[in-house]
Design the sequence.
């Protein structure tokens, strides 16, 4: 389960939706998930889900109940992991709580390991804070704490540093590096809707999301994936296309419902049935037609 515990973020990275939001749009973002909603979700999926990813497009540490959420999931024998930019003034006590919460793994995402490279993509981020938090968290977590991974996103401006990543992680007490190529196209453009022309060829199913995972919004709505319809889910709450609501139903019943049956049909059969109004309608993973004009949303419309 991918759980959007905190939709907001203090950074403005160019490829992320937060990099293009106006001040008014940032203010209109959904509130963080409550501990009550999270407990409802855990109670419904314990014994059936192996892991919860406690973040989506926001910064999970912005949810004040994050540690309590992790502890509740851990008590239900569910693994948890988060990805954080770690660019906060975090006290030793806050880091200790996170390190001893039962968290399985934490990925700290950086685009540089120096003040010269870090802030060029992580707009508004501060390397001095990240560096301090990494060192103290690694010491507090030790061998019994969560697995600490440095996610190094490689661009032209920082590729000269990647040969140093392994030694940097060893010196810092980080368990492992994860070096990936950075994207320059905003995610909302990558997943822009297409005209409905079923994609043919390739291995089936075209998408695995309807078979093994789902995204749960801060207010308990369940969506098909975390890639598609980002702007609607964040900026046009009245136009979201939820597959169900865990507050009035259960994940088990939602997964067996007609919207999910259709999602699996769309992913496994090149001949698409009626998609109108469905979450997966015009998804570029399933359809091969030209891009539809992009619709933008604001708090006023």
Sequence:
């Amino acid at each position: 389960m991918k759980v959007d515990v905190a939709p907001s973020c203090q950074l403005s990275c160019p490829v992320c939706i937060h990099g293009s939001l106006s001040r008014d749009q940032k203010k209109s973002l959904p509130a963080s998930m409550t501990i009550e909603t999270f407990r409802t979700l855990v109670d419904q999926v314990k014994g059936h889900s192996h892991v919860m990813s406690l973040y989506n497009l926001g910064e999970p540490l912005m949810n004040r109940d994050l540690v309590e959420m992790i502890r509740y999931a851990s008590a239900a024998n569910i693994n948890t992991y988060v990805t954080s930019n770690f660019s906060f003034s975090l006290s030793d006590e806050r880091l200790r709580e996170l390190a001893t919460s039962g968290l399985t793994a934490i990925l700290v995402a950086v685009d540089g390991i120096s003040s010269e490279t870090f802030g060029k993509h992580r707009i508004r981020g501060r390397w001095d804070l990240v560096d301090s938090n990494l060192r103290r968290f690694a010491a507090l977590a030790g061998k019994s704490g969560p697995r600490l991974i440095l996610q190094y996103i490689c661009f032209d401006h920082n590729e000269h540093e990647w040969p140093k990543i392994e030694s940097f992680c060893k010196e810092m007490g980080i368990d492992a590096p994860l070096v990936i190529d950075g994207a320059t196209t905003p995610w909302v453009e990558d997943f822009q809707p297409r005209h409905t022309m079923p994609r043919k060829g390739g291995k089936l199913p075209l998408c695995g999301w309807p078979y093994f995972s789902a995204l749960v919004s801060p207010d308990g709505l369940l969506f098909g994936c975390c890639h598609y319809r980002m702007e609607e889910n964040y900026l046009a709450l009245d136009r979201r296309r939820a597959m169900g609501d865990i507050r009035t139903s259960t994940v088990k019943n939602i997964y067996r419902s007609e919207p999910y049956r259709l999602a699996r049909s769309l992913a496994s059969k090149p001949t698409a049935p009626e998609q109108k109004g469905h979450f997966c309608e015009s998804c570029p993973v399933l359809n091969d037609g030209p891009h539809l004009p992009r619709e933008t949303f604001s708090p006023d419309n």
In short: The chain has a mean pLDDT of 93. The longest strand covers residues 147-154.
